[in-house]
Amino acid sequence: MLDKRDGYAIVTLNRPDEMNALSRELRSDFVAAFDACSADESIRVVILTGNGRAFCAGFDLKELAGSTESDASEEADNEIARAMERFSGPIIGAINGHAITGGFEMALACDVLLASENARFADTHARVGILPGWGLSQKLPRLIGVSRAKEISFTGAPVCAQQAYEWGLVNHVIAEDELLPRAIAMAETMCACVPQVLTQYKQLIDEGSSKALDEALVWEEQQAIASAKQATAALIGERRGSVMARGRSEKK
């Protein structure tokens, strides 16, 4: 479900009776919603949340049970992760309940995570006999440390919101009825930033985090110089336009 507002959009997983499990239809709708946000220049921030008591319980296991080998190949495709990557602005995850396996991976694809007091995170890939393919095995250790990530992934045990906060997995733990308003307030604050700098800053952090520190510092400096040149060129263009407009006005 897509709700576009002034500068931001709310994407809501809307299968509450099935804990927002990722059926083929929901995955298709999700990709379409994010692509719509990517195509709309007025949308600078996306809030991702779930309807009901779960954020997302991962893949729809009932549907998977009836899958063919061809279906399994399609379901292993990381179309959801790619759709989220195509959106250049910040993504705020408002994690309202259980975020399990595929749902956990979707949460990790967000830039900032806000969790309700009812939020629970679990990685059950090892229990169901598949490996993650949307980045969990690489992102989680970098976020909370290798040992803690292994504990989560090798046991499948749930991590409560407060523990997730203490481990650095989520930014804030918030009362359930305040979760979405808090996410909206954060989105509005982000929308007050200079639009192109907001997207450039996200890219700067994301790409720099994959580099060695000395390399990342050089790369940051290069990007800062390029950004300053662009800003100066834009300012000069505005001044020239203002002078020309004033000249035409005086001639009249």
TrEMBL record:
Gene Ontology molecular function, alphabetical: enoyl-CoA hydratase activity
EC number: 4.2.1.17
Keyword Plastid assigned: no
CDD domains registered for this protein in UniProt: crotonase-like
Sorted UniProt keywords: Lyase
Pfam families per record: ECH_1 (PF00378)
InterPro entries: ClpP/crotonase-like_dom_sf, Enoyl-CoA_hydra/iso
Domain of life assignment: Bacteria
Record has GTP-binding as a keyword: no
NCBIfam families: PRK06190.1
Family to which this protein belongs: Belongs to the enoyl-CoA hydratase/isomerase family.
Protein name: Enoyl-CoA hydratase
Origin species: Seongchinamella sediminis
